[in-house]
TrEMBL record:
This is Histone deacetylase domain-containing protein. The keyword DNA-binding does not apply. Belongs to the histone deacetylase family. Pfam families: Hist_deacetyl. Keywords: Hydrolase. GO terms for biological process: epigenetic regulation of gene expression. The keyword Hydrolase applies. Residues 17-282 form the Histone deacetylase domain. It comes from Fodinibius salipaludis. GO terms for molecular function: histone deacetylase activity; hydrolase activity. The lineage of its organism: Bacteria, Pseudomonadati, Balneolota, Balneolia, Balneolales.
Length: 299
């Protein structure tokens, strides 16, 4: 199972910042140590070409990120302090998702040890999401005619507002978001299918809702490729999640998604999206469940 990763996925943040930037290095190391991936399967991306980035994002916003002249309002929306390394890591991660999509088309499954930054809009970022890697990858795939119909399965606890807004009028992209109804973002542009769950939703209700929704989607839509945003923030222990999944429930969620896609014989792209577990170690272990599950299933 090939994955995208580069040491440049890490960019320093203030020690007190809530975003767990060290998780990217930690997950890469853990997957190697556990033999879930081999070093030969790690593909390092370059920075995404600005022309590809601007298939989704405006020239002013893309240049503002690279040059550090966004302005105070857009920096506040972003939620991350600007640095040149942050700008570089954001472009690396976007190319990592493009590469993972191409590798999935070749191999059946691939992942990016980052990505899933679904809150980024065309002309601003928010919720710690600088660029919308999924949207850029989809545009590259569709314009290159590598894929036409694309399904986004977004199981981050926060609705994928950026992806929903960007593809609002594209009938060839099906955006599905399963999220906490009362959680961020408070303005939720409509996905193709949105399911908002009440606070404290537990394993059984969550998993039944997910399984039923996927059955309906695959009855109605025939994708060429699937992106899976496996955010770990539905966990009961998450700082911001407000849902109540157990670790076993989270792994069962990943298995349901992967099995459904496997049953359709479709290429699958695995992406991290969000998660704010109490410790870095718990964050890494939870993100690793998706890759461990894919490995065990011998896709």
């Amino acid at each position: 199972m090939r994955v995208s990763y580069a040491p440049g996925y890490y960019a320093p943040l203030p020690e007190e910042h809530i975003f767990p930037m060290k998780k990217f290095k930690g997950l890469h190391r853990y997957l190697l140590e556990e033999n879930i991936i081999d070093s030969s399967e790690v593909v390092s991306p370059s920075m995404v070409d600005m022309a590809n980035l601007q298939m989704v994002h405006t020239r002013d916003y893309a240049n503002g990120i690279m040059n550090g002249d966004l302005g105070k309002k857009k920096l506040r929306q972003l939620g991350l302090p600007w640095s040149k390394r942050l700008a570089i890591r954001s472009r690396l991660a976007v190319q990592g998702t493009i590469n993972a999509a191409i590798m999935a088309l070749q191999d059946g499954i691939a992942g990016n040890l980052a990505g899933g930054t679904h809150h980024a809009m065309t002309d601003f970022g928010e919720g710690f999401c600088v660029f919308n890697d999924v949207a850029v990858a989809i545009e590259v795939l569709q314009q290159s005619m590598w894929a036409k119909n694309i399904l986004v399965i977004d199981c981050d606890v926060h609705q994928g507002n950026g992806t929903a807004a960007i593809f609002n009028d594209n009938p060839h992209v099906f955006t599905f978001s399963l999220h906490g109804e009362k959680n961020y973002p408070f303005k939720k542009p409509p996905s193709t299918l949105d399911i908002g769950l009440p606070d404290n939703t537990k394993d059984d209700q969550y998993l039944k809702t997910l399984g039923d929704a996927l059955d309906t989607i695959f009855d109605d839509f025939n994708p060429d490729l699937v992106f899976y945003l496996g955010g770990i923030d539905p966990l009961e222990t998450d700082h911001f999640g407000r849902l109540s999944l157990s670790k076993k429930g989270l792994q069962r969620r990943d298995r349901i998604v992967i099995q459904k896609v496997v049953a359709q014989d479709l290429p699958l792209v695995l992406l991290l999206s969000g998660g704010y577990a109490p410790t870095l170690e718990e964050t890494v272990l939870a993100h690793a469940l998706m890759y461990r599950t894919a490995k065990e299933m011998e896709y």
